[in-house]
Amino acid sequence: MLKRASWSLVATISVVTVFLSIEPAFAQEPFYKGKTVEFLVNFSAGGPTDVFGRLIARYLPKHVPGNPTVIVRNMPGAGGIIGANYIYEKSKPDGLTIGVFSGMYLPQFLGGPTVRYDLNNMPIIAGAAETSVVYIRADAGVRTAADLLKPAKPIVVGGFTRENNKDLGMRLALELLGAPYRYVTGYAGVAELRVAIQRGEINYTSESLTGYMTGGTLLVKEGVVVPLYQEGLLGPEGDTVRDPRSDLPSFRESFRKVKGSDPTGPLAEAFKISGGSRTMLRFITVPPKTPGRLVDILRSSFRQTFEDPEFKADSERVLRFQLFTYVGEDAEKINAAVFRAAAGPGQAALKKLTQQ
Predict the structure, then answer these.
(1) Less Cβ around it within 10 Å: N or C end of the chain?
(2) CA 267, CA 350: separation in Å to the nearest integer?
(3) Is 213 a domain residue?
(4) For 171-206, what is each residue's pLDDT tens digit?
(5) What are the tens digits of pLDDT across the range 299-340?
(6) What share of the chain is helix, strand, coil (3-state, %, to 5)?
(7) Is residue 24 part of a domain?
């Protein structure tokens, strides 16, 4: 009897020990419970990157285990470089700061003196493809790309920085067409460019599809500007193709109507690099050395957010189109393709244009 009692006691102690050892695993709360996640947007409030970030911020919390609070902070300047540098150099790799960037590829490709971030050394959470729409003030007397060769008023291009994809995309198109223009850069964001257009400081600029659909179309309806073409995206064969979410012709199609053939040469190759950048126009990332388990949680949460029917309906209402998104490994593949495109012969032409 004593022997059986001893074995029974040992067994009981063993079971209790096992339960005590696994209880913390069951009781452990989700990492993000009670925490605040910050979206750091590298352009000014009211612009398309800000609209994109705030739309996601409304729906992400319900898809993150622990349902954290998500806030948006704007850090504009230097064509988005200041915000990108901040995430790369100063933000803690604790999974609580997420960079929501636009237009950061070309500054890195071109090795701008203020660029200290490296998109290949920042874990990618997700990305989104988006074309840009080019428009001109109506009083310039331009209705089609062909009219750019003989405008009623000189073309004055407005942009962010010499290395920014917005600036280079517009300038490459004008250079390929052979249209004369004057270039003014240094605007902090799209909201500032719209004001400059309305004041007549500039008369030619572009907006991402988000910006155009949420603000640029109002300028069209008011008769202030005329949309000319969309810049397009990088297609699977390495050519610039039309973004199907816009009815506007691509630049390639517009060029063909004006010149009778597709654009060729170093500038055309450079324009393809620009198109590759638009194929991952929105780049959602976290600081280097962010733990893999947190990266995985965020990727899963963003994927669920993008698939959320309520998010899709709100995207349609706010943006007037559906997002083309990439998450996790899919985003990594697109990122690699963009860098491959930048290794071509067009890079020298891009660098030369930034010096003019």
Answers:
(1) N
(2) 8
(3) yes
(4) 999 999 999 999 999 998 899 999 999 999 999 999
(5) 999 999 999 999 999 999 999 999 999 999 999 998 988 888
(6) 50, 15, 35
(7) no
Burial class (CB in 10 A: 0-12, 13-18, 19+), 323: buried
* Same domain as 152, residue 199: yes
Q: Residues 146, 225: one domain?
A: yes
Q: What is the pLDDT of residue 27?
A: 53
Q: How far is residue 272's CA from residue 177's CA, in Å, rounded to a whole number? A: 15
The total number of structural domains that make up the chain: 2
What's the first-to-final CA gap in the chain, in angstroms? 97
Which of 275, 290, 312 terminates a domain? The answer is: 275
Residues 142 and 218 in one domain: yes
Radius of gyration of the chain measured on its C-alpha atoms: 25
Q: Residue 7: its pLDDT value, please?
A: 43
Residues 326 and 303: beta-carbon distance below 8 Å: no
For residues 198 and 122, membership in a common domain is answered with: no
Question: Is 231 in the same domain as 293?
Answer: no
Cα torsion for 197, 100, 90, 295, to the nearest 10°? -170
Q: What percent of the chain has pLDDT over 70?
A: 92
Do 267 and 144 share a domain, yes or no? Answer: yes
Structural domain harbouring 103: 36-129+279-342
Taken as a whole, the chain contains a residue count of: 356
Give the tens place of pLDDT for each residue, 96-149. 999 999 989 999 999 888 999 999 999 999 999 999 999 999 999 999 999 999
**DSSP letter for each residue of 249-293:** PBHHHHHHHHHSS---SHHHHHHHHHHHHHHT-EEEE--TT--HH
Last residue of a domain, one of 224, 248, 275: 275
Q: Which of 21-35, 174-188, 257-271 has the lowest mean pLDDT?
A: 21-35
Task: Quote the percentage of the chain above a pLDDT of 90.
Answer: 77
Predicted model pTM: 0.83
Considering the domain architecture, whether residues 125 and 147 belong to the same structural domain is answered as no
Retrieve residue 43's tokens.
Answer: 């352009």
